[in-house]
Amino acid sequence: MSALLDVRGLVVEYPGAGGAVRALDGADLTVAEGETVGLVGESGSGKSTLGAAAGRLLSRAARVRAGSVSVAGESLLEMGSREIRRVRRERLGFVFQDPISHLDPTMRVGAQLRRAVAGRTKGGDIAAHLERVRLDDVRRIARAYPHELSGGMAQRVAIAMAMAARPRLLVADEPTAALDSQVREDVLDVVFGLAAEAGTGILWLSHDLPAVARRCDRVAVMYGGRVVEDGPAAEVLARPSHPYTAALARSAPGKAERGERLEPVPGRPPVLVGEPAGCAFAPRCPMADDRCAGERPVPVRIEGRDVLCHRAEETGAAVEIVPAVKR
Ligand SMILES: Nc1ncnc2c1ncn2[C@@H]1O[C@H](COP(=O)(O)OP(=O)(O)O)[C@@H](O)[C@H]1O
Ligand SMILES: [Mg+2]
Fold it and tell me: pLDDT confidence of 69, banded at 50, 70, 90?
């Protein structure tokens, strides 16, 4: 089976004052057709870099050092610019944390949406696209400029634009982080509802672990630019195997507040320069031993999940943390 999104061993670096900062250090991730995957981890763990790489939307400064990215079987990294634009247009949709800055401030919402759907057979009428994201008074909104909208309205417009072409994969990078908690659930309902209708797979970059457990099929937990645990969302977050997932799940607040940063374990997440000798989590890990400090872990498969930990077999599925409920 070839996955819709298949990222293998991806290494991405950004130039930094003290040497190249390794944002991805051999990241592996797949999303199957129609699958919903939550990508979680502290700020700086590499989520946005991985999400952007799914559409080869990395910033100019980024350097891909190794690995591959493919979408629906097509390898993105070797493509010409015309081809990559076609893949984005035909297969991918993106939604970001700050919708206003991704809308054109000089153009009315309706005109932008019309441009986004132009040339698409299923384009349909603008009002219908706005109604689908549960906006009221769609005529007024179509005539408005982005700055006249609330954050929640602007995010719905951005979602309407991203979903207009019924993409195969929607990458949503913390789309609700800047919204109030009530609006947040409504916006997520819209995203997950539209994706389910269209059979669109979702890669949702998030800090909200309980919501990922409720809404996603799978979770991928990132640390130091690698996916350290990957498996069924509700089960993994209820009974983590990786010590980092356990720490993250233990610290997850019931309701994450606006702009909040997770601080699951004492110490700071690493800013990697070059490839670390051992496990990147070892300096903060309560279970670390000599092997962890000196030997790079490879994924171990236990209980239907992949765990990047030398001691995964010992921890097994360790601690009961959140109720294993989904939807
Ligand atoms: N454009 C950039 N230039 C330089 N460093 C960057 C850039 N984007 C991200 N980084 C660095 O790469 C690492 C991963 O960042 P990011 O992918 O944004 O993680 P996350 O989304 O999980 O917070 C961090 O150390 C961050 O500082
Ligand atoms: Mg980010």
Answer: very high
Question: Which CA distances in Å does 291 have to 101, 145, 222, 243, 287?
Answer: 46, 57, 21, 15, 11
Q: Closest residue (by CA) to atom 27 of ligand 1? A: 44
Q: Domain locations in the chain?
A: 5-315
* Ligand 1 atom having least distance to the Cα of 16: 4
Q: Of the ligands numbered here, which is closest to the C-alpha atom of 177?
A: 2
Contact between 10 and 27 (Cβ < 8 Å) = yes
Tell me if 49 CB under 6 Å of ligand 1: yes
Q: Give pLDDT, residue 217.
A: 98
Our answer on whether the CB atom of 271 is closer than 6 Å to any ligand 1 atom is yes
Residue 270 pLDDT grade (very low, low, confident, very high; cuts 50, 70, 90): confident
Average pLDDT over residues 320-324: 39
Q: Which of 187, 189, 106, 198 is nearest to 154 (CA)?
A: 187
What band does 263 get if pLDDT is binned at 50, 70 and 90? Answer: low
Ligand whose nearest atom lies closest to the CA of 96: 2
Provide the pLDDT for residue 54: 98
Is the distance from CB of 164 to CB of 200 less than 8 angstroms? no
CATH class of the structural domain 5-315: alpha beta
Ligand 1 site, residue 57, Cβ cutoff 6 A: no
